[in-house]
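FIELD: query
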Amino acid sequence: QLQLVQSGGGLVQPGRSLRLSCAASGSTPHYSTLHYYVVGWFRQAPGKEREGVSCLSIRYGTTYYANSVKGRFTISRDDAGRTVWLHLDNLTPEDTGVYYCAARAEATVSNMCDISFFNYWGQGSQVTVSA
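FIELD: result
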């Protein structure tokens, strides 16, 4: 069983930066690497639906960014395919919310960051952007 463990988050002032991490773990080698998965970052702001922020195909290197974060957030991974990071730059109060990392098996879909396809989830990290 693939498990995702998140770290990072916290309180930050507008214009500052933050980094979130998502590490894979499991009882077998297959579940200790993300090489065969698409990993995504989703956030849920107060009173709003959970939305896809950024997604990355570990195998092919393709990425997706929501228009609201394009040019400010960056998704990346380590060479071993164990950890995925989300770098959040030039943060605004509208970025406030609970950020979740998630994973799904690699497959061809219309939208690689469609939340309905993700079946493994991290515990969530609170990000609060406030002066």
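FIELD: remark
The CA atoms of residues 23 and 129 lie 24 Å apart.
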